[in-house]
Structures are given as C-alpha cells and as structure tokens.
Amino acid sequence: MEQSRQKENSNANSKNNDKNNFLIKGNELSDIKHVVAVISGKGGVGKSLVTSLLGVMMKRKGYKVGILDADITGPSIPKIFGVNELRPQVFGEGIFPVETGNDLKIMSINFLLDSPDSPVIWRGPLIGNAVKQFWTDVVWNELDYLFIDMPPGTGDVPLTVFQSIPLDGIVIVISPQDLVSLIVKKSFNMARTMNIPILGIVENMSYIVCPKCGERIDVFGESKTEKIAKEMNIPFLGRIPIDKNIAELCDRGEIEKVNENYLEMCIKALESLY
Ligand code: ADP
User: Fold this and answer.
1) pLDDT tens for each residue of 13-23
2) Where are the domains of the chain?
3) Which residue of 92, 137, 138, 261 has the lowest C-beta tally within 10 Å?
C-alpha cells in the first residue's frame, strides 16, 4: 500500500514538474491504483448507468471499488445504489465515503444537499472545487479502481477533473444517434489534447430484445459505432440494449442485483491497466 501511494504521489509530483500540469495529490490515507472517468457528450445517454455497472462488475471480480459522482447536472449514483438517505461521516480533516451493501464506496455531490431533489445552484468553479475535495479530502483508503461519473460535455468540471486528478483513462458513453455529435468529438479532443488515454467507447441503448421471441431489434438502424470507433482509432468496448430490467433496478436503487454483463470488453480494458 505504502509503495503504491508513494508511486502515485511521485507520479502526480513528477507530472507536476511539467509547467502546464496542475495535477493534485489525493488524500494521504487513500491508496488508489487506477482512476477512470466516464464521460458523455450530453446528458441522459446512460453515463451514470455505465459507471454503476462498471463499479458493480469490478466489485464482483473482487476488486476494491469506489465511485466519485461528479455529475452535478444529475447526480444519480446514490439513487441507483439506493444510498440516497445516507451521509458521509466526517472525522477531523477527513470525509469517509458512503458504503453500499456490497462495500462499494460512494461520494456524491448529492450527499451535500439537504434533500436529493434540491436544485443545485452552485456555479462551475464551486462545483469543480467540490470535486477536487472529493479527491483530496475523502478517505477512500485502498481502492483498485475509482470511477468518476463526469458531468456531460466539456464544461468547467470535466476540465477541472482532467487537469487536476491523475486519470488512467476515460470511457466514452454514447447513444446510437449521438455519434456525429460535436460534443462527443469535443470531449474526445479534450482528452487527447491533455494526453489522457481513451480506453474506448461504449454504446448504450443500442437495441431492444423482443420479450416474446428474443429477436434483437436495432431500433436506430444498424449501428455505426464500431466503424467510427475504428476510424477514430478508439477501441470499441461493447453495447448495452435498452433493458427494462436495468431501468427498474436503477429506479429501485438495486443495481447491485444486476445479472446481465454487457460490459465484458470494457472490464477487460480496465483490467489491462494493471
Ligand atoms: P446520464 O448519466 O448519461 O445522464 P443515466 O445513466 O442517468 O444517464 O440514464 C438516464 C435514464 O435512462 C435513467 O433513468 C436510466 O435508468 C435509464 N437508462 C439508461 N440506460 C438504460 C438502458 N440501457 N436500459 C434501460 N434504461 C436505461
């Protein structure tokens, strides 16, 4: 643990020697091996769902997992995991994340609001600072993977996260109609410009499976994601159908009970970070 923390801190420090680099050190008591941000061009494409599924699947594989919910526009991680009513514990200088029934650690902007449906009226820099504090002040302890659920687009908060937290990579979530979206390309270019590895693209809400005959129906026509991923030289990491069961599990806060694993390729890409 000590070695790894030293590695991480020296990593952040050595990167900090670059004059354009603003990476900050994580909490002294945290030992986080890999940090992966999940991004999307716009809201509602299933970014929080993908973040949650990756967390659940990696936890099932025996890894220690945390999720940092930085999506102020729709902080849905606590709801998906059914921990909306819990609050992080504060001891001295440190904040301890909320833990789910399966010991997955969660920190969310939602926990700081009086009630989960309070409107968020903070401005970008303030939110950016809150997210930075989730990195510096939250005692994550030992984690194999910390997933960051980012706000959609390329605003202040994604920029702050990209600049200040040492990311091992990003996963881009898109919906089939989203491909040509300029915002996806902007996010992609932002990551590239900042030398953050792009682990790949996941396509969500790609198709439906007929509940009667099991036939797969490509509601948006044949997907072009794979082809475009190839053209952009990004790995294609799988697709998730529109799945009523998943929607219900999210609504009930029971995502940890999910049976389907649509993200095997993505999991492999994450494991290859080791
Ligand atoms: P984002 O984080 O991109 O804003 P969410 O992950 O919060 O999007 O998803 C938006 C809504 O769509 C949620 O209610 C979620 O449960 C639902 N949803 C997302 N992906 C799927 C899917 N593959 N099947 C069914 N419902 C989905």
Assistant:
1) 444 345 457 89
2) 28-271
3) 92
